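[Meeting: bench + compute handoff]

Bench side (C.D.) handed over the final construct sequence. Compute side (W.E.) agreed to return the predicted structure before the next meeting so the bench team could plan truncations. Sequence as handed over:
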Amino acid sequence: MSVESAPRLLVVEDDADLRALVSERLRAEGYAVETAETGPDALARADASPPDVVILDVMLPGLDGLEVCRLLRAKLPRAYIVMLTAKAGEVDRVVGLEVGADDYVTKPFSLAELVARVRAGLRRLRLEAEPARTDDEAPLVFSAGDGAGDLRIDPVKREVRRGDEVQHLTVKEFELLLYLARHPERPFTRLQLLEHVWQIRYEGYDRTVDSHVQRLRAKIEDDPGNPRFIRTVWGVGYKFAP
């Protein structure tokens, strides 16, 4: 997050009245707000001026919000993405989280609720940008044993390295890895991981855990098909093997 200027927000919404209402309220909160009406416009604006927080409608013309989210997440792994949807179905929420959204707000919503979500996201980003290390936040280092280099997880910098190479993780990927690594050899069910990492207690989100584990393995494992660190515990869920 930019520390020398106001946080940058991008509001992507095809409803002109709602877009104006949301952006006006966020500007009143002191944020630098840009707006976009379509998916391609959002991607172009994010390229020109990377936002700290993206407020993204799911139902966009042409390129829908889920695809925009996936593309933005690939470009901006540390941005905080809040999705807006008129759909209340669990499936829509699951898909949104799987493509990289950090939070979800269902229409109709109050502006106060949306501002609170934005503030929470910015607090998280601020912790990454301006850390204050304590004794129990020392980096966790694990030997790979496969010649690819040690795995180093820095809770304060929110940085993950495999050998000398920095691995670019999303917010939830990092939190999932850190949670597992802080409880080595302890098997967790998907429901337990949802509760601790996502603060969600619904079994319908199980696929979200699986998709995040797959992406984590692709980033930190030498052979994702034969993982060294994040192991599957059949009939239970997952564990971290130090």
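W.E. noted at the follow-up: Residues 44 and 163 are 34 Å apart (CA to CA). C.D. will use this when planning the next construct.
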